Amino acid sequence: MKSLTQTGAGAPLLDTHIHLDRYSLSDQEAIVADIRHSEVQSIISVSMDLASCKRNLELSRLYGTMVRAAFGYHPEQPVPSSAETKALLDWMEEHADDMIAVGEVGLPYYAKLEAESEGRSWDNRPYEYLLEQFILFAKKHHKPVILHAVYEDAETACRLLEKYGVTRAHFHWFKGSRDTLLRMAGNGYYISFTPDILYEDEIREIARLYPDHLVMTETDGPWPFEGPFAGQMTHPRMTSAVAAAWAELQGVSVLAARERLYENAVRLYGL
Questions:
Q1: Which residues are annotated as a binding site for a divalent metal cation?
Q2: Which residues pair with 13 in a beta bridge?
Q3: Which of 97, 120, 125, 225 is deepest in the core (most CB within 10 A)?
Q4: Cβ neighbours for 57, distance < 8 A, ≥ 6 positions apart
Q5: Among 19, 13, 17, CA closest to 35
Q6: Per UniProt, where does a divalent metal cation 2 bind (predicted)?
């Protein structure tokens, strides 16, 4: 039986969202060595904060076009101070030519949910202001923006993107309503699917609905997955299984699916 992480359908694969810097050094080296001999052409390593940005820059310089760096601040953590935000944005200005995109940025849906469940007060406005600054940065430097924005937070992200006329947007591992999907698709925003497309009904339904010219593959590694991937280290090769699952849902061949998913990512990121 063919492994779910085995490539070989002939078309290139791209992991458009992974946190390579969050793996151990030995796992980083093993992953890159492995994909050199696979059909995974490149990965986009997104950042958590300034230290993460610096590490991803190092990785992109070390591995060339195999690892593309995106710089940003993950929203599922305390909002940075004004001084920290300025330091990050100043550093990003200095290294704008080294980044393929602004990311990972967005809104803290899960942190907000946790606070509400524990009866703690929550103010989303500082996060929205921070996201607005990142969107403005993306517009200034003509970069795509990689978003962590799900359910009702996606509506807020859409509003900010529309406000500034930013259309090169990538909502990674998206979850949300049909109305939000229609709004995003109408604006030409991209989404990407992780390995949970093999077993999560909510994700599979989104995969059936979203336009096929606006979808891509990702892993969000090192985040672990369940189903057939339980107990495995998340690896860019898993994009092969993601593409195959999407092909099945669309009723097309695996080769045609992989070609479309690859072309979409190349179009968005100018690869």
A1: 17, 19, 104, 148, 172, 220
A2: 40
A3: 225
A4: 69, 71, 95, 98
A5: 13
A6: 148, 172
Does residue 5 belong to any structural domain of this protein? no
What tokens appear for 24 in the block? Answer: 């151990």
Bridge partners, residue 105, by sequence: 147
CATH assignment of the domain containing 123: 3.20.20.140
Per-residue burial over 158-194, b if 16 or more Cβ lie within 10 Å, else e, is: bebbeeeebebbbbbbbbbeeebbebbbeeebbbbbb
Residue 2 covered by a domain: no
- Look at residue 6 and tell me if it is in a domain: no
At what angle are helices 125-141 and 82-94 packed, to 10 degrees? 10
| 147 in Cβ contact with 105 (< 8 Å) | yes
The H or E element spanning position 190 is strand 190-193
Give the range of the structural domain holding residue 96, as residue numbers without chain letter: 13-269
Counting the structural domains of the chain, the total is 1
**Residues of each annotated binding site:** 17, 19, 104, 148, 172, 220
Residue 264 placed within a domain: yes
